[in-house]
Specification:
Elements (H helix, E strand, L loop, with lengths): L2 H13 L15 E2 L2 E2 L5 H10 L8 E4 L6 E5 L2 H6 L1 H14 L5 H11 L14 H6 L8 E2 L10 E2 L1 H40 L8 H12 L12 H34 L2 H4 L3 H16 L5 H6 L1 H27 L6 H25 L4 E5 L5 E6 L6 E5 L10 E9 L6 E2 L2 H9 L10 E2 L14 E6 L12
Parallel strand pairs: 1-2, 5-6
Antiparallel strand pairs: 3-4, 7-8, 8-13, 9-10, 10-13, 11-12
Helix pairs in contact: 1-9, 1-13, 1-14, 2-4, 2-7, 9-11, 11-13, 13-14
GO cellular component, one term: plasma membrane
Membrane topology: Multi-pass membrane protein
Organism: Mytilinidion resinicola
Length: 470
């Protein structure tokens, strides 16, 4: 699976740095700030967060694990929706802190969030305005967070401000997060397509040749202008994949420390979302080190197998981690859908190109113990090509990357010596491809697309990516 997938997966993992409790929340649509709001109106959410930490008259006591002692109180949606003290305390807090919010927005918040944020939950037994009307005298008793709430009370300003800041900052961070995710993703899609359309503009031939030579095509010798598009396209995905893996590991370590310090690790680590998150993090941690060049060269077929298998496991783990933890409340799963769609589209395009090109017969020449030369008649190309060999193995889906050494003209050509060819291919072919034969010296670089026959050289150690050569 491409490194771009890990970029999208890491976006999802990075999004999950929030308070963790397994959720059966109502389903959201699209993304945060793009169809999904988190804590608006923030003043009302801060009131509920401040009050909901106190047990109510209808709360039930929970037994502590492994003992007969009573644990903390548990308050369900039905209790929140019907408890008079809770409803009136919440209504009074909202009336004093949300004076600039219209009544219809407060009523919507009341109906959707008083009982909780579950997919299925009861409506409050009375509206916001009716609950507020029952508070005939301003309350005077101060509610201490965590103490039982059995009468209409006031919340302290410090407690309310603390919850307000947490809610507002969290939403700002998530809004910014989604915005820049979209900017990065859409830039990677729109900008290349936009630049590709420039080729249809009838530019002068000499400008096209010079721009291709200095921007797109790498040099035949050296690397003096090999630091632009080619350099970025080669290095960026690799380092993004490493950064994403580091983010996932840090994310896991942070929550491991949080739950270990609070004494909840033994119970929380048994939750499905925790297990699948650990699987995804472990898969990413295994995938990158096992994708280094020496392993790909020596165990290329094995690399293809475990690369696809572990990548699929990572994507599955990320999706189930989000699904068990948040449901579809915040739209984090959208990024998993995008990653899988990109991967599926790339695979379908490979299949379409394979069908379009059809089957070809090649002439294979053994140069020595390390190198083969494959001549394919009737096609032209440059850069690199992925070749399938359906008659050599039962694994017909496997392909191997070959560097396109040159396109050969019917006219006489000049070839480099075997020694220089071996020395060049023995170097890091992924970064420094060489041209092993050239056509007539007066050949224009753009004429490469008009040749009728290509010569392809393959090292005895397969590689996964070769920059374009001319």
């Amino acid at each position: 699976m491409a490194p771009g997938l890990f970029f999208l997966v890491a976006i999802c993992l990075n999004s999950l740095l929030a308070t963790a409790v397994v959720s059966n929340s109502r389903r959201g649509h699209r993304l945060i700030s793009y169809g999904i709001t988190m804590y608006k109106p923030t003043c009302a959410f801060a009131c509920r967060d401040t009050i909901s930490g106190s047990p109510l008259n209808c709360s039930t006591e929970e037994m502590e694990m492994g003992s007969m002692d009573m644990g903390g109180a548990s308050t369900g949606p039905e209790c929140y929706a019907t408890d008079e003290s809770f409803l009136q305390t919440l209504a009074w807090c909202i009336s004093t802190h949300c004076q600039g919010v219209t009544v219809w927005k407060l009523e919507r918040f009341w109906r959707m969030n008083v009982a909780g944020n579950g997919a299925v939950q009861p409506d409050p037994k009375e509206t916001y305005q009716r609950a507020l009307a029952k508070v005939t005298n301003p309350p005077t008793e101060i509610l201490v967070t965590g103490d039982p709430l059995n009468k209409t009370s006031l919340v302290t300003e410090d407690d309310w401000i603390a919850n307000y800041n947490v809610d507002s900052i969290s939403e700002i961070q998530e809004d910014t997060h989604e915005r820049y995710c979209l900017v990065v993703f859409l830039s990677g899609v729109v900008i290349p397509i936009g630049f590709s359309l420039v080729r249809f503009v009838p530019w002068p031939a000499h400008l096209v040749t010079k721009s291709n030579a200095h921007i797109i095509y790498p040099p035949a010798f050296g690397s003096h202008h090999n630091q632009k598009l080619h350099h970025q396209s080669h290095w960026c995905p690799k380092w993004v994949a490493w950064i994403c893996t580091i983010e996932a590991v840090i994310h896991s370590c942070i929550y491991l420390q949080i739950y270990a310090a609070s004494g909840e690790h033994s119970s929380e680590s048994k939750m499905p979302y925790w297990i699948w998150g650990a699987i995804a993090t472990l898969g990413m941690s295994i995938l990158l080190p096992t994708s280094i060049l020496p392993l790909r060269q020596k165990l290329y077929e094995g690399f293809l197998l475990w690369h696809i298998a572990i990548s699929g496991l990572v994507a599955t783990g990320c999706y189930l981690h989000i699904d068990y933890r948040f449901g579809h409340q915040w739209g984090y799963e959208v990024w998993i859908y995008v990653a899988m769609a990109v991967w599926a589209f790339e695979r379908m395009m490979r299949l379409a190109k394979l069908v379009r090109n059809g089957l070809r017969t090649a002439t294979v020449t053994v140069i020595d113990d390390d190198y083969l030369r494959v001549d394919v008649e009737g096609v032209s190309g440059n850069g690199h090509a992925y070749l399938y060999f359906p008659t050599l193995t039962w694994r017909v889906w496997e392909n191997h990357p070959f560097s396109v050494a040159s396109t050969v003209l019917p006219a006489a050509t000049h070839q480099t010596s075997t020694t220089s060819r071996h020395e060049a291919l023995a170097s890091d072919i992924e970064k420094h491809p060489v041209q092993t034969s050239t056509s007539q010296t007066s050949r224009d670089i753009i004429e490469l697309h008009h040749k009728k026959r290509i010569e392809i050289l393959r090292s005895g150690l397969p590689f996964s990516y070769v920059p374009e050569v001319t």
